[in-house]
Amino acid sequence: MSAQQPGIYRDAVLRRLDDGTPIYGVLDPAGKWRQWMGAPAIHVRQEAAQAEAAELNEIHGLQP
What we know:
By secondary structure, the protein is of the alpha+beta class.
């Protein structure tokens, strides 16, 4: 997880595949997984999850 600060969007490991590969997601300020079409939105690369979190923080005027 990139940031532990509450009240912001942040990237985190959603789960790991059987071979240990991490699958990333974005936690919202309430600590719930950001959803996409009824399921947690997933990212294969941590950089993509970080970029989404940063964009959401900017859109909502939140300071990491």
